[in-house]
Design a protein that fits this description.
BirA Bifunctional Protein, domain 2; single chain; alpha+beta; binds phenylalanine
Length: 347
């Protein structure tokens, strides 16, 4: 149809009847050119022949301007309907072709759908981090702040301010990693307590979680790198009874109900009196040591500028590894550092 029609158009303006007849021919042309298409490329070529910039239908649209306004409206509507029909036919054919090529590919490439997919394991927090967060949570609920400080400390903060004199056994260089003169990797997080007390006035209520270092040979219960949480509460009128209450709350929250506690005398240079705390599940034999504790030594309070006649305080320190080992029945502390997924993924 196109050749004929365009010959007409080049010689004179077309009439409504001629245009409508040509429109009928366009649908026939579409059926013809789209019938045997084998793939999407061929279908696209067919589309261009009708709907492309120079396509037959596009040309009919431009012929509209030859008509009077009334005729133009009538013919325009007919051309638009035609265009819509062709376009939806195009969509149907395109889908069918796409499906055919998909199926063809599947048949050719023969995927094995029974093969397992890619396994992407979900990471999770290290058990020590989980236990630390849980301990923090317990004390945050009790109104304590979480404080932190440097892992590299001076002798002053790690020892002296804590009433550990130069000849105290803990000062023996075999117990610490020195990085230079008077600078060492902290052996506990107690120096954080000194730093906080020097900055704040009582009441002070903090816990200090963090990594610590000691010159211990690794074995099932020792590691030269380990983690502590220390607690400090300084305020007017605090007594050993408050200390016992806080520890009792902690034991109940962390280990669950049904545990009894035992305090026995101990010694720390920075607390007086000092105690070792054990717990035992009621009805069982074995006492398990969970922490060292005590009333803050008056010399420590004085050192940070507090008046020991005004305020008292208590502190304790526990090992996060130890808490995790007791909680989960882990026998060897080295498991925490070996990054074995068979171990880590259990928590
Ligand atoms: N700092 C002590 C340690 O590392 C633990 C402790 C803290 C004991 C507070 C008593 C009071 O062993």
């Amino acid at each position: 149809m196109d050749a004929e029609f365009f010959h007409l158009r080049y010689t004179r303006a077309v009439t409504l009847v001629e245009l409508l007849r040509a429109a009928e021919g366009v649908w026939a042309q579409w059926e013809e050119v789209s019938q045997g298409v084998e793939d999407l490329e061929e279908l696209e070529a067919a589309r261009v022949r009708i709907l492309g910039r120079k396509g037959s239908l596009t040309q009919l649209f431009s012929a509209l301007r030859d008509l009077s306004p009334a005729e133009r409206a009538e013919a325009g509507k007919i051309l638009n309907d035609l265009k819509e029909r062709i376009e939806s036919s195009l969509v149907v054919k395109r889908e069918a072709l796409a499906k055919r090529t998909r199926e063809g590919r599947l048949a050719r490439e023969r995927y094995d759908f029974s093969l397992p997919g890619k396994w992407r394991p979900l990471g999770k927090l290290h058990p020590l981090t989980q236990v630390r967060l849980e301990i923090e949570e317990i004390f945050l609920r009790l109104g304590f702040d979480v404080a932190s400080g440097p892992e590299t400390e001076t002798e002053y903060y790690n020892f002296e301010a804590l009433n550990i004199g130069p000849d105290h056994p803990a000062r023996d260089e075999w117990d610490s990693f020195y990085l230079g003169d008077k600078v060492l990797l902290r052996t506990h997080t107690s120096p954080v307590q000194i730093r906080v007390m020097k900055e704040r006035q009582p009441p002070v209520r903090i816990i200090c979680p963090g990594r610590c270092y000691r010159r211990d040979n690794p074995d099932a219960t020792h590691s030269p790198v380990f983690h502590q949480v220390e607690l400090l509460w300084v305020e007017k009128g605090l007594t050993f009874a408050h200390l016992k209450w806080v520890i009792g709350e902690f034991v109940r929250a962390f280990f669950g109900p049904g545990y009894e506690m035992r305090f026995s005398a101990d010694f720390f240079p920075f607390t007086e009196p000092s105690a070792q705390v054990h717990i035992r599940k009621k009805g069982t034999e074995r006492w398990l040591e969970i922490m060292g504790a005590g009333m803050v030594h008056p010399r420590v309070l004085e050192e940070v500028g507090y008046d020991p006649k005004e305020v008292t305080g208590f502190a304790f320190g526990l090992g996060i590894e130890r808490m995790a080992m007791l909680r989960y029945g882990i026998e060897d502390i080295r498991l925490f550092w070996q990054n074995d997924l068979r171990f880590l993924s259990q928590f």
